[in-house]
Amino acid sequence: MNMASRLCRITVYFATALWMSPAMAQEDDVFAFIPDGGRTLLAPLLEDAPTEEATAILTDEKSREEWLAYLQERSNELPGLGELDEHQLLTLADYLFFNMPLAVERMPADPGSAEWGGVLPHDGRDLTLNECQFCHIITVVVTQDRPMSQWLGTMNKPSHVEIPLSEKEREALASYLVLNAGIPEDLVPEELRAGGASY
Cβ contacts of residue 39 below 8 Å, gap of 6+? Predict the structure, then answer.
């Protein structure tokens, strides 16, 4: 990462820290308007699933379509799965496609006793919040409705290639944004609206 990129990240980090007042920090998640990613959707399902099924999910490899079919088929059997809407099921299937089977070093010895939030890989929402807002106000990213090719094109520009993401993480992030970005600006909290700014 070059000096300009580091300086940008450091500056935005401190500006954000100063901008977030103590009252705002005590509010419920100011980013709650951004749809949950696959990690957030999957963790409670694994906690409630029988150990054998949780293990099977974590060790299986399927296409996006196969994961979606599996989730739809199991929606009446797995606790909590039936509460997800079609859009959330697509987001979850997408996450499973990019991240399963779980890397051996992340696999808990006893899946039934794992705290899944810390075991599962980051999802597209995590990556958006962790990486994109170092140099952008988050609204600039999540209000754009763009196809995969455009998201990947942006991520492969010189100004973005130094972001420490693997190629697979870039694709997963782009795919999450295709499914979940394009949020109308009137759903964005007032304090997070870009006001026309692009950076």
Answer: 95, 116, 117, 120, 121, 122, 123, 125, 126
> For the whole prediction, is pTM greater than 0.70?
yes
Q: Residue 44 corresponds to which tokens in the numbers above?
A: 């409670």
- CA dist., res. 79 & res. 184, Å (int): 31
Is the CATH code 3.40.50 the one for domain 122-199?
Answer: no
Q: Which amino acid is at 53?
A: E
Mean pLDDT of 102-117: 84
Residue owning tokens 């949020």: 183
Domain coordinates of the chain in residue numbers?
38-119, 122-199
- For residue 140, the Cα-to-chain-centroid distance in whole angstroms is 16
Q: What do you get for the CA distance between the two ends of the chain, in Å?
A: 19
Measured between alpha carbons, how far is residue 43 from residues 112, 115, 148 in Å? 12, 8, 26
DSSP 134: G
Place of tokens 């692009």: 198
Residue 196 to residue 48: CA distance in whole angstroms: 44
Nearest to 8 by CA among 177, 159, 198: 159
20-66 per-position pLDDT tens digit: 333 333 345 899 999 999 999 999 999 999 999 999 999 999 999 99
Specify whether the CB–CB gap between 172 and 166 falls below 8 A: no
In this prediction, residues 166-178 reach a mean pLDDT of: 95
